[in-house]
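name: query_chain
kind: protein
chains: 1
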Amino acid sequence: MSSQTAYVTSHPGTPKRLLMSALGLALLPAAAQAGNATADTANQGDDQTPKTTRLESVKVQATTVNSTSPKFTASLLDTPRAVTVIPQSILQETGAISLTDALRTVPGITFGAGEGGNPNGDRPFIRGFDSQSSIFIDGVRSSGSQSREIFDIEQVEVIKGPSSAYTGRGSVGGSINLLTKAPKTENSLNGSLGLGTADYQRATVDWNQLIGSDSAFRLNVLGHRNDIADRGGPDARRWGIAPSITFGLHADTSVTLSYYHLQSNEQPDSGIPYGNPNNYPQGSGKPIHVPHDTYYGLYARDFQKQRNDVGTILVKHSFGKSWLLRNTTVYGRSTNDYIWTQPDDSQGNFIVNGGVWRRNNNRVSNTTNLTNQTDLTGEFQTGSIKHSLATGIEVSNEKTNRDSYRVGNFNAAGRPLPGETGSIVNGACTLGTGASSGYWCAPVINPNPNDPWNGPVVRALNYTRITTDTRSAWAFDTMEFNEQWSLNLGARFDSFQTKSRASTGVIKNDSNFWSYQGGLVYKPTSNGSIYLSYGTSANPPGVDAGDGADGLAVTNNDLKPENSRNIELGSKWDLFDKHLSLTAAVFRTEKTNARVNTGGRGSPQINAGKQRVDGVELGLSGDITERWNVFGGYTYLKSKLLKPAPGDLASKDNQFPNTPENSFTLWTSYAITPQFTIGGGAYAMSKVYGNTQNTKWVPGYTRFDAMASYVVNRNLTLQLNVQNLTNKYYFDKAYAAHYASVAAGRSAILNFNYAF
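structure:
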């Protein structure tokens, strides 16, 4: 094996991050003493400031939550669109450790699977539309394919419906913003040590320290490892660190410097093939029935390594009288490097000869982004009308370099040798499984991930380089006419230029587009609102900046942006003295010039498709009583392909891929005593299709979770989470062809949560 691939190994070892977390735990006594001393000094000037943040019994605090976006010129109650905020308390109660875990609590969101050209990473679908390229961190686009952690996340915000006016390109179904943990005005030292089944080990430290009277330092550290429960092979190993410091906590001008590093080394899951491969159309469209722990991957060949580094400078200046200027500069770099097994590639070996071809999908990509964003917010009066204004500009540059691996033996023409392809005509698994196939083929039942791999793995060195430049400007205004009526208007202009260079030539797309948002709000009482809103989105070719599922290609580089619009009627209510928030909305989202292929896969595309989703959403969040809290909702999505591709007319009126008709989530907890709390969750979803033909699908499911926590003393709380309580065998991702991803089985985790 060449030096270029020397790092292709079997199970990775214990991550460095666990060692760093152990160091953090070792420093607890000294840090706690320092924190208490500084807190005492700080509190002499402010008797209202608590000394520390204590970890009480785990429950939602008696308050409604709001979005942190400066583009929202009103509270969520008075914002005319659907927004869901997942607070820190829910992240902690449910035992969430990733963005995928967090978004599971929001109905109407599913997850798409990756491959090689479509990268393996976070790919949420909101209201039926791919939102992989519409994920933001502190309001700035998070570029590159990643599997995101939440150890440094305070809350997760989901904007639903076309929202390019807020976020720019894409955002057809909505967008996701992750709010990071920033320095605060009190000393605290919190953390957690988690141990569980499936070799689960996790340690976190969250230390906030005042420096003098007007500055603070915060440090978050993570170490994590676990096997994927009842999956027979996949695992996760990662570590990270996120320091930040703020100067001028109480001053008119403040500066926050922050850095984020996350590094992972994992054994990726391979999934289960669908039962109707291309050469067996009579078969069932759902995945074949095999035991839950069936894993077709190879320890000796498969791996996934990711690294994410983000540096941020945030400058705020208050001019007084509600006027605030924010300038954010972000430089980020993400890498995604993997080889993983995609089972059988629709070849049908498991039908003909009892084997599954271990096709490899691979990718080597790195993405950098440099973004500068300026926001100005404030209030003013024109006659009797109060205005809440938000304006801003953004300049960004994103660069992606993409390569692949050559796995196995190739002929002089650069093509795989016949015995190393999945084609039954060329042999494939008809040669047998195991050694006789060079371990390219595994038996359908009881495959061995410890099979050796002796084939070569070398870099292809066939680079594609994508550069994307964006220039944007926006303005939003909420006009309050009186206590009952307000009008929200917003517009954004984007200049989007993307260029791709490869050995085959250079292609580019230059798009200029406007996006709009408008909403009328009526408040029958101070704690309730009824709204009617309209919003648009624009989705140009190359929206993924080279590292996603919606890339620039010779088949689409000369096309116009796809245009989407959303009409929504909704109502929001804050009940029980703002302890409980209830929301409801009915909506219609239409994409009027969707990109569709003129022929089969890979054929030229045209702006000729039309897609529609009609839906209903219900949501609730907060405290029903002082002891009882809830978080969840229900979403109904009636999706239709009104105008499919010319070569796919049979799909007319079919359901969207990755779009369940019904989805329901509910998390609730109850404090039996001030020390003892119990909780549980139910997550249900109806049948999901993987393709527009609706011939590949995964069954609906209902999953249950459970939680119990006990406050041992003022410094220690024990929390037990059981995920997938009934050990439900279900699929959480449906790819357009070939396979579906299997969700983890039952696992139990005991967390020792501490606070000083």
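note: The radius of gyration is 26 Å.
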